[in-house]
Amino acid sequence: MFISSPVYGGGGSRSETEGAAASQKRKTPKEEETPLPPPALRATSPVNGGGINPVIVPMLVDSHVNLHSEKFADDLEEVIARAHEAGVGAMLTISDKLTSTEAIKEITDAHKNMWRSVGVHPHYAIETPDLSAETLIDLAKDEKVVGIGECGLDFYYGYSPQDVQEKVFRAHIAASRETGLPLIIHTRDADERTKEMLEEEHARGAFTPLLHCYTGGRELAQAVLNLGGYISFSGILTFKNATDIREIAAWAPMERLIIETDCPYLAPVPMRGRRCEPAHVAHVAAKLAEVKGLSIEEVEKATTENFFKLFSRAKLEAE
After folding, report:
1. Where are the alpha helices (DSSP H) in 66-132?
2. How many angstroms separate the CA atoms of 262 and 215, rounded?
3. Which of 71, 218, 281, 314 registers the highest number of CB atoms within 10 A of its CB?
4. Can you tell me whether residue 68 is helix, strand or coil?
5. What is the reported pTM?
6. Which contacts qualify for 71-75: CB closer than 8 Å, 24 or more apart?
7. Backbone conformation region of residue 213, classed left if phi is above 0, alpha if psi is from -120 to 50, else beta
8. Domains in the chain, ordered, with CATH?
């Protein structure tokens, strides 16, 4: 079920974190425990039409987790339990490549309020250079699939040739447009080309873009907001040298922001050097609250509501 995948993941500045993440020893559950910001309230709203109204459910949502990673092979259920204890009421598990689909499906099917995406990370575009929108559309028929991606452009690592990355990215865009599901975008050292492609494709037909684990500039962020899109921030927001990212977070409208961990990568302060877990999204929420001059409760409420507006196929179930 678990996938060995050393290079997949978000669009963040991973050079300073990947080495530590790869070499660290497994922590026991007790060692992983650390004080978290006050947890969100549990979902207590009545079930309505099979789903809880997300507008009145204060809680945290981790919008980008990689639970099929081999780093969670030994204690996945404990990881999920710790997330719930920290007030994380829902999670979106992300596809890195098509061969991960069944492993991800097995995890999400076994848990309530956990959904998944379908797609191919740009690192792995070379493995499916002829990927079609139709393939993604077919995979997205499952009701637990709520997004297309993670997809996009990564010119920093360049594990896949640029022309292949762009071709595969366009297939994802077409699938997002056809299904109406949000497009989950990874972009690194590719702001200009990502902006060009999104604007060009949006002119052909609307779709909703999400800049995941955002570390790019204001120009691309503004372009995505102009297209009706959203921006997600990860634990990088807490890093000492992430001043530029915090400036983007302070500038961007709260009604278009969501949060994530991109676990098992990019553990936020004060968890640096450890394996990242969904529970750590509470630290991201706390930093975003600080940056925006809001209370943690306001950020929890806003990011949860924004998640369910964006990923509208996702419906909460009563525990």
Report:
1. 76-85, 101-109
2. 13
3. 281
4. coil
5. 0.86
6. 71/21, 71/264, 71/275, 72/2, 72/264, 73/1, 73/2, 74/26, 75/29
7. left
8. 15-21+64-310 (3.20.20.140)
